[in-house]
Amino acid sequence: MTTLTINGKTIEAPGGTILDVSRANGIRIPTLCHHPALAPKGACRLCLVEVKGLRVLQPACTYPISEGMDVQTESPKVRAARKFVLELLLSDHPKDCMTCEMCGNCELQDLMYEYGVKETPFVGDQHEYPLDDRDPFILRDMEKCIRCRRCIRACDEIQAVNAITMINRGFRSKVATSFDTRLQESNCVFCGQCISVCPTGALTEKDSHGQGRAWQTTKVTTTCPYCGVGCNFDLNVRDGKVVKVTSHWNNQVNKGALCVKGRFGWQFLHSPDRLTKPLMKSSLWKERKGTEGAPSRYEGFVEADWETALDTVAEKLLAVKSEDGPDAVGILTSAKCTNEENYLIQKLARREIGTNNVDHCARL
């Protein structure tokens, strides 16, 4: 164990960085480029702290602790340095927080408020990038990018896709694909991991714009319905309607990572095309009921009650089994059903019908 002092408090720790030890002991140090799912980078310089005996401030996220170290995380020198960094960031950042999609959920905005940064003394050129809406799921507003590289690192370290990087140099540097093309023209798989780690409004979900701010939604943790991996995520719900999906970082199955279907494939929940009643072929309904039945919006089908529909299915399955044997029956289940429902349908197939002809759309 290493013994050190942070803000006058004696702490014992097995090792790690100043940031790790501070957070483990309830001492807050602000960060922008740091994310717990990513390797430390030390790029933003917001986590600078004062280490006794050293001439310059040190980045807490990359500086390892040592025996007898004395650290100050909130000294006047430290706070002045952090405010200076924030003023530099504000010098090239749009001030449209009132209409920004991430207002109330922006790490940069929170830090500006905490350190009282309203204006910047640094006047000069500012980037003027058009809003990039060329891709189906992700909006890129590079005017709001602070070049923390969290999106690049998530793409590299978590997804191992390497679809985006920093292009150009100096004032012209920005996050983009090779040759600054559309994401669709790169090897991007649209997992949305870059969105989940972005601390500002530079990367946002396209379909969620205007649907609700962070304080207007309620997060409900659930399991992705698309395959058998069991990834967890948070449904962001407003007025009983899902407006977007965000990563649930504490889940042990996927640890915040999602695929394109898990993060962006939730629109079916509120689709007007979803069936709310069972449908039967008109001929089957007439055979059982002797009437034409109320037509549905699907040609050749009528809306049925559950009792009639289930009785018809049971009779037809028994007839096929009796005539051609159980292996003449095959059952295809859906990823949009719950695990419990899929378990029951395979139990029906194997125990009641007597066939192993069961498949699942997530395997296709």
| Averaged pLDDT | 93
Strand fraction equals 15-25%
Number of helices: 9
Question: Quick one: biggest sheet?
Answer: 5 strands, mixed
Number of domains: 3
Number of beta strands: 16
Second rung of CATH, namely the architecture of the largest domain: 2-Layer Sandwich
Radius of gyration: 28 Å
Side-by-side strand order of the widest sheet: 2-1-5-3-4
How helical, in percent, are the residues? Answer: 25-40%
List key phrases describing it.
364 residues, alpha+beta, Ubiquitin-like (UB roll), Alpha-Beta Plaits, 3 domains, five-stranded mixed beta sheet
Summarize the structure.
It contains nine helices and 16 strands. By secondary structure, it is an alpha+beta fold. The protein has three domains: 89 residues, Ubiquitin-like (UB roll) (Roll); 149 residues, Alpha-Beta Plaits (2-Layer Sandwich), CATH 3.30.70; 85 residues, no CATH class.
Could you explain the architecture of this structure?
This protein has helices at 18-24, 76-90, 107-114, 150-158, 193-197, 260-264, 282-289, 306-324, 339-353; strands spanning 2-6, 9-13, 48-51, 58-59, 70-72, 138-140, 165-167, 174-176, 203-205, 218-223, 232-238, 241-247, 279-281, 301-303, 331-333, 358-360. The protein has 364 residues and is of the alpha+beta class. It folds into three domains: 2-90, Roll (Ubiquitin-like (UB roll)); 122-270, Alpha-Beta Plaits, CATH 3.30.70; 279-363, no CATH class. The protein has a five-stranded mixed β-sheet, sandwiched between helices. A hairpin with a 6-residue loop joins β7 and β8 (174-176). The longest helix has 19 residues, at 306-324. The model has no long low-confidence stretch (mean pLDDT 93).
